[in-house]
Amino acid sequence: MSLTVRRDGVPVVTRVSGSTIDGAPATSDSPMVVASVSKLLTANMVARLDQAGVLDVDAPVPWGRLGLAPHPSWGDVTPRELLNHISGMPVARASWFTGTGDCRTHLSTLVAGPPRTHRGSWTYSNGNYCALGLLVEAVTGRPLDDAAQTLLFDPLGATGIHTTDEALPTDVAYQLGNERLSRLGGAGTFVVSTDDLTATLAAVTPLDHEVMTWPGLIVDQYGWGHTGTVDGAKSCAWTLEGDRTVVAATVSGGSPATGGDVCDRVVVAVATDLGIAAGEPDRTPP
Fold it and tell me: Which helix (H) or strand (E) holds 138?
């Protein structure tokens, strides 16, 4: 496991156990599978591209540029709807981890019919962020991890982010095999360290937050962030004190049971140290 707490832009606490694939002791800068915490990075890239005028989060998704030909009813769905899980995307939860084919191939089956009747109301689906990852790749002309490096990590002088398309010797191993997660795309494919996660969240700007909003982000009484839960990996990335303090914790293994459980432990612990404890995090919609 790895834990990093960053305050005022500086790492103030790191705790690590375990080793990397090449047998070296893990550090807080060792990349790990972070599951759905990846959605924070995908949303941040979309925000930066919107600011640069490369895409418009309130214009229809250019499905053709994504290599998709969905049902005509998807024609007016916008990236903002995808970001906020209100697009009417089918959930298809288990199928992201079974079968063959990449994110684009699987997504094509989900958009072959019209948006579901829940369009306009929050219904969490990996398909929304798979589509956003394809959008990032389409408008940048780069693979998703290269785009993340350029848009988010290069300005911070950070390196090492990649996707589950391959495992690197300096990663902490995902014991069920990276290929199990590779079809998630922008919904859950990033491998990144807790040091780099906290640095990235600490650099989120007010302009970013015009795109990165609830219910795409998860909120509680302490701040905002996201949890990540897949078999064999759990992750939490959260901000507190109006973004002054950022915590990220990732586990390669089965316990605790969920990324939410990780957040329940580390967010409350950090809040207690800061003197702002306000009970167990309440991540139900406000």
Answer: helix 126-140
